[in-house]
From TrEMBL:
Cited NCBIfam families: HAD-SF-IA-v1 (TIGR01549)
Lineage start: Bacteria, Bacillati, Bacillota, Bacilli, Lactobacillales
Family annotation (Gene3D superfamilies): HAD superfamily/HAD-like, Putative phosphatase, domain 2
Keywords annotated in UniProt: Hydrolase, Magnesium, Metal-binding
Name of the protein: Putative hydrolase of the HAD superfamily
InterPro entries tied to this protein: HAD-like_hydrolase (IPR051400), HAD-like_sf (IPR036412), HAD-SF_hydro_IA (IPR006439), HAD_2 (IPR041492), HAD_sf (IPR023214), PGP-like_dom2 (IPR023198)
Cofactor(s) needed for function: Mg(2+)
Organism, scientific name: Pisciglobus halotolerans
Length: 239
């Protein structure tokens, strides 16, 4: 039987929603900036210093300032540190109201009804990610010891170590295990290096990287993850 493990941010919920709400509160006067592009740049600069943040070499506060000031600079806008921090506080506040995407909820219900193993592997500070997991109500489907957070495990995607930790603790078979996530570099590459199969959530129409590593499946905008997983499970039963 296949097992499915998931990323959290921009996979289980729309990460752009709290970003948009915080932007509307503090920066809506910059109406010439394409919001989704700003969001993508903020993620790019966040990823750029993620390892330093994880190791404690860069304080989280400084990372938040860095990613937003650098993202605005792309559009020739200079914001102050205080503005970046005010935005971050609002962003975190709106994250307390995030909701599972309907297609994800349907996927989880299907897997639970069919006794399919589910888990979470997510990068980020332990407390912060746990708050999101609680807000999304994931305990309805996923056991607490099937949740692996980089801040707690001392290993982060795409390092295969965190995938190996999950595989060992959940007693998974790598060839029958799928990882679902939106980051090609972290989720697809990490899962494939661990010997897992990868489902790339590409609902933001990112360009396919020039890589020898390829996802096993791609979910584009308008596609249904739940329908794909049902097909994978049914095909597996027919083998």
């Amino acid at each position: 039987m296949s097992a499915f493990l998931f990323d959290v941010d921009d996979t289980l919920y729309d990460q752009l929603w709290p970003f948009r709400k915080a932007y509307e509160r503090y920066f809506k006067h910059y109406d010439f900036i394409p919001l989704e592009e700003l969001f993508r740049y903020s993620r790019k600069y966040s990823d750029e210093v993620f390892e330093q943040t994880e190791k404690g070499e860069l304080p989280l506060r400084d990372m938040h300032i860095y990613r937003m000031t650098k993202a605005f600079e792309v559009f020739d806008v200079k914001i102050e540190k205080e503005e970046a921090l005010n935005f971050q506080y609002a962003y975190e506040n709106f994250q307390h109201h995030i909701q599972l995407l309907p297609d994800i909820e349907e996927t989880f219900h299907y897997c639970k009804m069919n006794d399919i193993e589910l888990g979470i592997i997510t990068n980020g500070p332990e407390a912060h990610q746990k708050n999101k997991i609680k807000q999304l109500g994931l305990s309805r489907w996923i056991e607490p010891d099937h949740v692996f957070i980089s801040g707690a495990e001392k290993a982060a995607k795409p390092d295969e170590k965190i995938f190996n930790i999950a595989e060992n603790k959940m007693h998974l078979t790598s060839k029958d295990t799928y990882y679902v996530g939106d980051s090609f570099a972290n989720d697809v590459v990490g899962a494939k290096h661990a010997g897992w199969k990868a489902i790339w959530i590409n609902t933001r129409n990112k360009k396919m990287p020039d890589s020898t590593i390829q996802p096993d499946h791609i979910v584009n905008e308008g596609d249904s993850l739940s329908r794909l997983i049902k097909k994978i499970v049914n095909d597996h039963k027919g083998q």
